[in-house]
Amino acid sequence: xxxxxxxxxxxxxxxxxxxxxxxxxxxxxxxxxxxxxxxxxxxxxxxxxxxxxxxxxxxxxxxxxxxxxxxxxxxxxxxxxxxxxxxxxxxxxxxxxxxxxxxxxxxxxxxxxxxxxxxxxxxxxxxxxxxxxxxxxxxxxxxxxxxxxxxxxxxxxxxxxxxxxxxxxxxxxxxxxxxxxxxxxxxxxxxxxxxxxxxxx
Length: 201
Fold this sequence. Notes:
Blueprint: E1 2-4, H1 11-18, E2 24-26, E3 43-46, E4 60-61, E5 63-66, E6 69-72, H2 97-110, E7 114-117, H3 122-127, H4 136-147, E8 152-155, E9 162-167, E10 172-175, E11 186-191, E12 197-199
Parallel strand pairs: 1-2, 2-3, 3-4, 6-7, 7-8, 8-11
Antiparallel strand pairs: 1-12, 5-6, 9-10, 9-11
Helix pairs in contact: 2-4
C-alpha cells in the first residue's frame, strides 16, 4: 500500500505517484476539483481540511476500515478567516461530535493495527511544536489512541516529514527516518509532507 501526503491540487504529480502501484491511500487536501481523479476503489483518499465537501467523489473516505487500515478524515483550517466558505473552505471540514462518537465505536470494535488520517492525535501536535489544546479532530484522534494503540499511524496536514516512536508506557522517542526494527510494544507515527509517500506491505 502506498500512502501519500497532501496534494493541494498537484493532480499530475499525484497521478504519477499512483501510476505504478496497485493500491494507495492519499491523506487529504487532495483538491477542490476531483474531475481528473480515478474512480476505482484501488486509489482512495481521506478528506482533509482543504477538500471540497460540496462535491461527492467515490474514492473519498470519511472514516472506517479499508484494506486493513482505519481511516479518519478532517482537520481544522487555521487560515479559514482568510478563505471564502463554499469557494476554498467548507464548514464541515471536521467531523461533528456525533460523527466522532460513531468513529469511536467503530474504532473500538476494529482495534486496527494501521491508521491513516489527515490530522494527528493531540500528543503528536506537541511533538511537532504546535501549542494549544488542538482542534476537535486532534482531540478525537487522541481519544482513539487512548482506546487502542495501533502499530503504525500515518498522517499528513502538517507539511513535514517526521517519524516518532511512542512506547505504550508513555515514554517517547524520535527518529529521523522510518524505524527499521521489528514491531513491538510501541506505535510508529509518521507525518508525510506534501506529495511525500511511503510504501507499506
